[in-house]
Amino acid sequence: MAKLTKTQKLRLEKLDPEAMYDFDEALKTLREHSKKKFDETIEVAMNLGVDPRHADQMVRGMVSLPSGTGKDVKVAVFARGENADKALAAGADKVGAEDLMEDMQNGNLDYDRVIATPDMMGVVGRLGKVLGPKGLMPNPKLGTVTPNVEQAVKDAKGGQVEFRVEKQGIIHSGIGKMSFTDEALKANFLAFTSAIARAKPSGAKGKYIQKVSLTSSMGPGLKIDNAGIEGA
């Protein structure tokens, strides 16, 4: 992390680590602490009352952020023929079949999303040990195994993000950039937190959304009042 200026250190020292903020107050505070030397990512983290070691307490899915992510998402697609043409036209960075599989086996895995048509899963299945650990394995439940690769590529490029709870019950994601307007970031925050609330698993007991915090790449973590969040 880059060194803080004296002014920034003083501001941080004045922050109460136990203080609760509403989203608007938290975002204003993060903007005040921004170094402004690069476009920081605004991130949300949520502590959930689940134990993802149990299948009925796994929280995973996709959500489209209405304001986009501000990130250039690299997408690879396994498809042939007309579907391959549609994927390329929709903006996929790499499209192929066995050739793409071999490329990935050779270590070329610089992608944020991997999509496949159902007929290509015989090829993609050989990449389980390569794509699985990176969370890139196409999955029908996430919409990344689909005959409509054109829409899947557009969704990935347009602001759709995947979420998956970690072992400690924490789920987090970037929801935009510091350069976004307050309104754009708030819309993304509400879309993301609402998606997590709707994804409450059947096995979750007690309070589901326990803590929510907002931070930026170089900024402090600020606790958000759960009251305004659906399902909290």
From TrEMBL:
A Pfam family of this chain: Ribosomal_L1
InterPro entries assigned to the protein according to its UniProt record, in alphabetical order = Ribosom_uL1_bac-type, Ribosomal_uL1, Ribosomal_uL1-like, Ribosomal_uL1/biogenesis, Ribosomal_uL1_3-a/b-sand, Ribosomal_uL1_CS
Keyword annotations for this protein, in alphabetical order, are: Repressor, Ribonucleoprotein, Ribosomal protein, RNA-binding, rRNA-binding, Translation regulation, tRNA-binding
Q: Name one GO molecular function term.
A: structural constituent of ribosome
Classification via CDD domains: Ribosomal_L1
Query: Looking at the UniProt record for this protein, which Gene Ontology cellular component terms does it annotate, in alphabetical order?
Result: cytosolic large ribosomal subunit
Q: Which GO terms describe its biological process?
A: regulation of translation; translation
Q: Would you say which domain of life the source belongs to? A: Bacteria
Q: State the family it belongs to.
A: Belongs to the universal ribosomal protein uL1 family.
Q: How does it assemble?
A: Part of the 50S ribosomal subunit.
Role, per record: Binds directly to 23S rRNA. The L1 stalk is quite mobile in the ribosome, and is involved in E site tRNA release. Protein L1 is also a translational repressor protein, it controls the translation of the L11 operon by binding to its mRNA.
| HAMAP family (UniProt xref) | Ribosomal_uL1_B
NCBIfam families documented for this protein: rplA_bact (TIGR01169)
The protein here is known as Large ribosomal subunit protein uL1
Q: Which organism is it from?
A: Allopontixanthobacter sediminis
